[in-house]
Amino acid sequence: MQAGAIFGGVHHHASTVNYPVPRQLPPAPRHFVNRVEQLRTLETARTAGATLVAITGLVGAGKTGLATHWLHRQDTYADGHLYADLSTLTGSTAAQTVLSGWLRALGLPTPSDDVHELAGLWRSATCNRAVAVLLDDATSAAQIRLLRPGGTASLAVVTSRTPLDDLDLDAPERIQVGRLGPAAARELLGRFAGTTRIMADPKAAAEIAEACVHLPLPLVLAGARLGARPERSLRSAADALTYPAGARSHPEDRVRMAITTALTATYNSLDADAQRLYRCLGLLPTADVDPDMVAAAAATEWATAERLLEVLADEQLLEPLAAHAARPVRYRMAAAVREHACGLAEHDPEHDRKNVRRRVCDWMLLVATHAQFRLTPAQATLRRSIDGPPRQIPLPFDDDTGALAWLDSHQHNLLGTLRAAETAAWFDTAWRMTDAFFPLFQFHHPYTLWAAAHQIGLSAARSATNPAAQRQMLASGAIGLAAAGRVHDAIDWYTGMLEAARADADTRDEGQAHHGLGGCQLEAGRPHEAEAHLALAVARWEQCGYQRGVGLALIRLGECALATGTPHEALSRLDQACTLLLDIQECYEAARASALHGHTQVLLGRSANGIAEMESALETITVAGSILWQARTLKLLAEAHQAAGDRVRALRRYQRSADLYDRIRPAEADSIRRLIEEL
After folding, report:
1. Record: fold of 36-177
2. How far apart are CA 480 and CA 657, in angstroms?
3. What does the mean pLDDT of the chain come to?
4. Which of 64, 98, 448, 660 could form a disulfide with 631, with the two C-beta atoms 3.0–4.6 Å apart?
5. In the CATH hierarchy, which top-level class contains the domain 270-348?
């Protein structure tokens, strides 16, 4: 039917739909831990009127969890919470899809499919609204710019696996979400597995957290698995996750898959140079790395190594470590990260992988050799006769203090490097490196490392069929065993050295073996047997003109005289030792003789002279860096002050001695503290 003339207005009444205020955020995580600093930053940004926040970090680090945890607790954005998972939207229509959905959520029509027109309408619609939008898993600034709300009352929170450097023009507030700390990781694990189980086996819990790289996602999966299996021990779970290097997890292991997914996503976002360095680091046998080491291992410039290490640290693939006096910049690669990097490196040519390890071993040996030649040149005699002086390279130290600090900073890297050299059949490298670290052993006394390194060094010297190197390893290894109180083991090593020296007619090494055996007999409380060996040491060393050895034997003979109650004889022997050692400029060894000489003067009633001599000797010993002889001299000084009735000075010296003994001989420290209590 067609209407005729119509008078008045024509009205079309569209149906009215009351849209609810959009609340599209994913649920907040039920088990949220830590992130105090990041939450504080978010609050500060909101208070300051920020309109863009970028939260970046590894896959599984909890970026989305942080964002949703915080946004759910905000009432500032009364006009809505909007959400877009950008990882599921690709191609040219991604922004169009998101904008259309958001506009509909606000009850607005979408009159066009043109993305720029939709973006303009979106900004207009939010100009006077207060909304918060969460853009999850963004990969570029271009994705984000079209989706930002208009006006200043709204906020866009972006999460991304990449740093989004191209977003700097938009001046975002940046928040880095790293791995959880050890305590927070255990807490999260306990939320699922049960706090009681975590407390019952904290060591296994810590190993699980480490295997999960302290990332929330794999921790939640591991905790949920334990929660579903209350009969399973934490130890078995830890063992399943911390299998030996080189082993591979079952492909259906969800925890390991989560870790691998996170690391692979981050690796894929790196440029080619950073990827190559990441694979290189997975091959290194060291506990930590620094620019000097990495420049050598990767055969690159120092500045390049420093820059790429910073890149990997920014991506949470490396953990910055506290600065060491000799190495202000150090990083650690978690075991699971190292395994991932090593797995990727398996696709590189075999000779490239071998060269990485070869270069780092050669570099460690060369720098340690420079330290040895500087700190203990007399002990480096064998190395000098075989190799001559080490070739010159840029060194990370320029004085004795720096050289000893460098060796100390690498003591946790030594065994791994030695084992890598031994495995690769670089036997000369292995025993030479053990030998080069002798100044660390002599002055800082890491007894367990000392013994373990020399086991490898001795085995390598035997494999290299080098008799002189074998005797060197037996001698320096036995010194460590004796110093650690393992006198019977030390006697076995010195006896082996004596037999080898006699077989090779090596007079100097024969004297060294007798000197060591004399020291062991003295430590075992048999001073007369000790004197017999020491007399033979003096005879052999005088025969071959080794004056330093004669001086060292005289020190031991002086100690024997003290042990047998003949202080005048001790004074004479120690005086000879001091004079001889000073004549050949062995100042540290002469100071050891002087400390005992001063102690003997105190025993003979010359307290003032004895104390003054010991104080002077202590200064030289302290500069040399020997912890053992500092502690020993301080104890002798304390005894002298106590005998003189000076309680205050005695207490002070005893305390300093105990503090030093804590580092190398805790039982001795406890003994001294009992003396302090009696005072």
Report:
1. Rossmann fold (3.40.50)
2. 20
3. 90
4. 660
5. mainly alpha
